[in-house]
Amino acid sequence: MFARLNVFTKITLLFVVLLVLVLFLYTYSNRESVRVIKHEIQNNTMNHLSTFADSVESNIYQLSLYGMSIGQDSSIQEYQRPDYKDVPYERVKVGSAILEKMNLYNAASKWHSTITLYFPRLQKVISTDYYAYIPYRKDEFSKPLSKSWAYTHEQFEWYTTDPTTAMDTPGRSRLITKISFPVRHLINMLDQNKLNNKGDPFMFHPELGLISNSKANDTLNAVQSKLKEMTLSGKGGFTTTLDHTEYYVSYIQSGSLGWYYVDYVPMQQILGPITNSRNLFYASIAVLIAMSVVVLYVLYRSVQLPLLQLVKGTNRLSTGDFSVRLHYTSRNEFSLLFARFNIMAQRIQELIENVYEEQLRRREATLKQLQSQINPHFLYNCLFYIKNMARMKNEKAVVAMSLNLGEYYRYITRSENDQATIKEELTMVKNYLEIQELRLERMHYTIDIPDDMLHMRIPRLTLQPIVENAIIHGIEPRTEDGHITITGHHTDELSTITVEDSGRGMTENQMQELTNNLHKPLDGSMGCGTWNVHQRLSFLYGERAGLSYEHGSRGGVKVSITWYNNINE
């Protein structure tokens, strides 16, 4: 298939294949690069968020651990001594020592927290919050305490009891420890994380809202809405598009607070150089394609079209159309080539026409010579028939044969006019058929030609060779009765006379060979009559005129003689 294409098409296809291959390789490479970078962005974002979450969890764990261990301090145990009931000074002194220890812990801790100790049995409170008076209220601890950190009033609170089994009934415990820290510690850490990692971290809770850094972007609210729509697991990430920008959102759930640490980064911000490089490449390819189209168009107009025109002209010349001429307006090498081609075609046409006319004149002379010759075999048969009829005293048959034979030979030997009317042709054919009908009593014929066709003129001896072939090759070889039918019909443009016999017929191969012989040069193996009829019709009325063969409805052969009426006008 590829080998049959012309050079220009091959070059165009190769260019397209090369371009598609380059685009495919670059697109694949670009997608792989983007995929790897996206994967790295996701991993880095998750790693940074994990580091942030570990730092927050570490501080919360230290607060929780201190809250659980403070109940074992000896000062706490001493503060609860029953004998201090009558010695208030000692209890105040021990309380001051406890408060000093808690302040020392706050000073050493990364987060400044508020530590409050409730003594249900003593109904006293010790707190590091100097600016608030915290009374002991019995109804405050009438319900079970939460075993996790709770968020309320812009701070997180966590309770523990001594003993720890008293969480469900805190009013019966010896000590209730409350540790709280403000949200600003988390905000400060979020600010620090944003400064170091250039993200936009925040903390999210599906019911309580969010805690953002102090310089949060406007996109944060859209990310929060997206998080509310999703079912979040303990740790994960997803990609979403907000305001026509793609973001990667990663989250980790806090094991102590129950909130989610969330961070998101715009993918396009990081992938911007790759995207710009990709767009530049595609723009370059587009410019290259545009330039290539212009070059191919110029090449097509300047080279391919002249070559195609030259190939078509050569093909027409090889098929026998010597009237072909090439027209080319540009002034280049092809104009000179076309001019030489036209000169060559004109000279070949002149030579072929001269040779063809000479051949036609020779064939016409041959035909006239054949027409003027008496077929000895046909003549002998007719004379023997007359002799036999004379012996049998059949005067009527002798007269009929003599008259028909005379009229027949008078017509075929008349050569002063090359054309005759269909009526004259039919009269001669009737004479011939009458002769054959007298010789072959088993042969019959029917002629049905419209009256408006009888005045039309056709070459002389057009019908007789066809009828003669039908009798010799179709009717005579059979012993059964035979019938020949001659019909005609015409339109404004086309006229047709059909000769059909009921003879033995022909095979497809024989009919195809006979049709092919009509278009070949005349040689000794071919019949001259039908070939000459076809050639004369083609010469006078055009290539589409002539003889055609097909199987007849009666088992024989049907020959159609076709010509065009406008030629005779």
From TrEMBL:
Subcellular location: Cell membrane
Record's bilayer topology term: Multi-pass membrane protein
Keyword Transmembrane: yes
Entries under InterPro entries matching the protein: Bact_2-comp_sensor_kinase, HAMP_dom, HATPase_C_sf, HATPase_dom, Sig_transdc_His_kin_internal
Residue ranges of domain HAMP in the record: 301-353
Stored Pfam families: HAMP, HATPase_c, His_kinase
Predominant location: membrane
UniProt superkingdom: Bacteria
Signal peptide residues on this chain, from the entry's feature table: none
SMART domains assigned to the protein according to its UniProt record, in alphabetical order: HAMP (SM00304)
Keywords from the named record: Cell membrane, Kinase, Membrane, Phosphoprotein, Transferase, Transmembrane, Transmembrane helix
TM region(s), chain numbering: 7-28, 280-300
GO molecular function, one term: phosphorelay sensor kinase activity
Gene Ontology CC entries for this record: plasma membrane
SUPFAM superfamilies hit by this protein: ATPase domain of HSP90 chaperone/DNA topoisomerase II/histidine kinase (SSF55874), HAMP domain-like (SSF158472)
Protein name, UniProt field: Sensor histidine kinase
